[in-house]
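Question: what's this shape?

___
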Amino acid sequence: MSEITEPIVHADLVHELTTEQAWYYRIFPAEVLSNGFAFYCETEAEDDGLADELEILLGKKIILYPLEPIVLSRLLNQYYIREEELSTTSNLTHDHASDDFLQNLISEAKRLKSSDIHIETYEEKCRIRIRIDGMLIERYLLSRLEYPAIINRIKILANLDIAEKRLPQDGRINFKTQQHQFDIRVSVLPTLYGEKVVLRLLNNDATNIDLFTLGFAEQDLNSYLEGVKRPNGIVLISGPTGSGKTTTLYATLKLLNKNTRNILTIEDPIEYTLDGINQVQLKENIGLTFAAALRTFLRQDPDVIMVGEIRDPETANMAIRAALTGHLVLSTIHTNSAWGTISRLMDMGIPPFMVANTLNTSVAQRLLRILCPHCKQENDLDTASYPRSFKAPYQVRKHWMPKGCDLCYFTGYKGRKAVYEVIPLDQELAFEVKAGNQQPEALLKARGIRSIGANAFELFAQGLTSLEEVYPLLYN
């Protein structure tokens, strides 16, 4: 049989092999036959007695299809992810409705440093995807008969109503094993063919968070530290969902956490726990909102207040009030740029002079995937690949591109790094805010304040990330 270069993957067959079997024999399920199975294998293994050995092991007729070794390795890394320290752990059980399946699924996602698990249903299939380094990867397919059982199991663990299938529900699971203990935020959403569940894995361990290793350029870090070390005012971090804003806030709180300071936080959810900091979980259903908590915080003699998100005018006004009365307020806000934060506050009804008098530092951030150092490839750069409106600050002749290998699960990337834009508001910039200047790019450039696009380009020029990753941030 001729070698196959583009295999057809049936994710629902993955459970037919354990992780150890797949890697030991270097085979991957191809299809179910009337009397057995067909597997993909490496080219040279086709006539090496492998089929006979597998027939004895599995007790069924086996047919082998030859496959390029690099393609087979990519499939094994994607569907049979193995961890060195967990080499004895078998692949997930076929009984998807069992407690073991759900527990192993969550443990696997945690080991792979996944942030979310998506459990979805469609007309003819149901699937499970996990998000690693910001990208969703399909891991398992379920039958429509198995799907309701796993959804109900999640609802029971999260103390949700299993009879309610028409309305969204939110809950929380405290997940404990011998190796892990962490919280999971559960979101259930009714869709056309059933309920979709997203499990957000919250990392309770803040010991490895360090403000100095997040990705700040030296000048930006100095400007940021100057803002957070002031005794009062507001420091706002902006960016889309999943851009690392909360991690930056917790790293800042770790730096400010001293015995001489009273630090209070109101969060939704509490993603990390920090000793010495008084953390409050938002509970809107009983009236414990960001704004309500802030009112109480002002009577708790605080030095530093962290608000998970400024999402409405009432919260914005309370944060301004807290800053005016001598407190340092840290929070996040959804805008596209650091200067856009100022416009957003004004849209919420905050007068320009109040923004100018209270805003210490405005930060914008994004997360960029870092190229795998073991397999990235260098190529000549065609400047036509840049966005049409972008003018590079200096010439880059070579650039690095993702390839994929065993060590990065054939994604070409390994880990992520934050890029920032930091605007410290001094008297001159405060005057621009009061004047309603909506396009201060020339002024910021003259003052040496680097845009988020410039910092992203720097990572690209250094060969740490790809043009594909920085492309959305490149603008002039």
